[in-house]
Design brief:
By secondary structure, the chain is an all-alpha fold. It has one domain. It has nine helices and no strands. It has helices spanning 3-37, 42-65, 88-106, 119-143, 149-162, 165-171, 174-180, 183-200, 204-220.
């Protein structure tokens, strides 16, 4: 392992530890305080700003610092040409799976009463961008230069699942998610997002798929 590679690995370890610690504290203590203190959509805006500062800003800095030790450089991360028609089957699969599941669960395809317009900020626009920036744009992007593609995807998927644990813990559904097997959906989605990033070498692809999934979920599921 080269000196630069060792340095990047150290950055990764420190980043993962700090990132998971900060986000756990946020989900368990800071986010509930913001939610109970501020009405919507102000609360959503404050939470969104916090997420950008924790998720996006450090990733951009680290990518700049380690530009030569990642799978796709920061300069190319959003500029590599995308052949969108190649991903049409996946769009169709997502649509059939989510709309079909909604129809089976509720007996119709109506927008759910639980949907609130402010969710389009935090649950649609922001989640896809921030989570893909961290888990595909930075973590997977770095893992791919240090291990096999398969191992990089697996580790990335496990970390992606783990970042959801704090909110599950706060809501008291962590055990239910594990026992019911709902966690498998997150692992599978992470693998799909990772493969689309590796194939396209453009972060916009997993971002778009992530946002599309979240949009259908918040519209058609409670």
């Amino acid at each position: 392992m080269t000196k630069n590679n060792k340095k990047t690995t150290l950055y990764l370890i420190i980043y993962i530890v700090l990132f998971f610690f900060i986000w756990t504290v946020y989900e368990l203590f800071v986010k509930p305080t913001i939610t109970s203190t501020f009405n919507e959509p102000l609360g959503e805006i404050i939470r969104s700003i916090f997420k950008i500062m924790v998720w996006i800003v450090p990733c951009i800095y680290l990518l700049k610092k380690n530009n030569d030790n990642v799978y796709v450089s920061l300069d190319d991360l959003f500029t590599n040409k995308i052949k969108w028609l190649n991903y049409l089957p996946l769009f169709i699969l997502f649509t059939i799976f989510l709309l079909g599941g909604s129809w089976l669960q509720y007996g119709n395809l109506a927008v759910r009463d639980t949907f609130q317009p402010h969710q389009l900020i935090g649950s649609f626009l922001l989640v896809g961008m921030t989570e893909e920036m961290v888990f595909r744009g930075w973590l997977l992007n770095s893992f791919l230069t240090k291990m096999s593609t398969t191992l990089a995807i697996i580790i990335n998927a496990l970390l992606f699942l783990a970042i959801h644990f704090p909110v599950y813990l706060y809501k008291g559904v962590l055990l239910e998610v594990i026992i019911s097997g709902q966690f498998l959906q997150i692992l599978i989605l992470s693998i799909i997002f990772s493969i689309t990033f590796i194939k396209s070498k453009n972060l916009l692809v997993p971002i778009v798929f992530h946002m599309y999934w979240d949009l259908l979920a918040i519209l058609f599921y409670t």
